[in-house]
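Lab notebook page, bench 4
Experiment: in silico fold of construct C2
Operator: M.H.
Input chain length: 317 residues
Purpose: comparison with the prior construct
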Amino acid sequence: DLAGAGEKSFTTDFLAGRTIEFFKTNRGHPFCFMLSIPDPHGPNTVRPPYDTMYDPATFRQPASALAKGKRLPSFASVLEDRFNARQMAAYFGMVKCVDDNIGRILDTLRSEGLIDHTLIVFTSDHGDMCGERGRHNKGIPCEGSARIPFVMYAPGLVPAGTVLHEALGTVDFKPTLLGLLGVPFAAPCEGRDASALFRAGAAPEGWVDQSFVRIGGADGGGNRWMGVFTKNHKLIVSAVGDPALFDLRTDPNELCNLLYDAAQRPLIRELGEVLKNYAVTHADPLMELECVKADLAWAVSDRMEYTAPQRPAAKTG
């Protein structure tokens, strides 16, 4: 219910205001501050004037929603057309509201003399398909859902204009940020310190371009998959569908599953070994499922033809 919501009471504005208060109060002390803005998020509602700022008639459904794809597993298949231009206009309104409030926060850091010695990260927890593949929301390994922005402002630490394409994950945040700041930490950490990538603008010698993404457990319904991602490829195994291999260089919309291409067996074997090692080492819950273990066993084997194992029935109710 947005009745009466304004530039001080709407959630995004309110949280930005509290953030600004914190910076002004603590400007003379070292601080670590995390602001978690819930938008953009369903049900895609935003206060005036953002609710009418964008014309629904200008939005067009993504091209990927019109292509059925080739041998796609269920978790990555193209669904029937679900594009809603009105919802997209509201979504963009939410994004614009977030953008304006981030601007307020950055202006405060400038006016308080903090901007040149504050490391700032703008990122998210997941994306939204926004009509791609006829889907909305999140939870699948496709780029629109799984690949998120990571924008960093680190004066004197990271050269301006640096762009990295290596695959990194949220577990890498802590060691990377502490590495950039030169702060030692003794506690064990599953993530990797990628500060050398940011400082140099490229991967150092010996850097392994791999990250792991997963969702779901052995029980229950919904999306249940895990994958190894690189900047060019991703291999995914799932409880609810056949595995998938995508080449992001030749197929950025991920509409062609290369799992059944015999020429890709060496790459599948290589990535399969990596994913299996991750799953065993970290006791991934999906390894409790025989179908997942069978798919990984095939991936690392010398067998060419893929045979789908029996998968557990999805729970309903």
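Observations: The chain has a mean pLDDT of 93. The beta strands are 120-123, 150-153, 211-215, 225-229, 233-238, 244-247.
Next step: discuss at group meeting.
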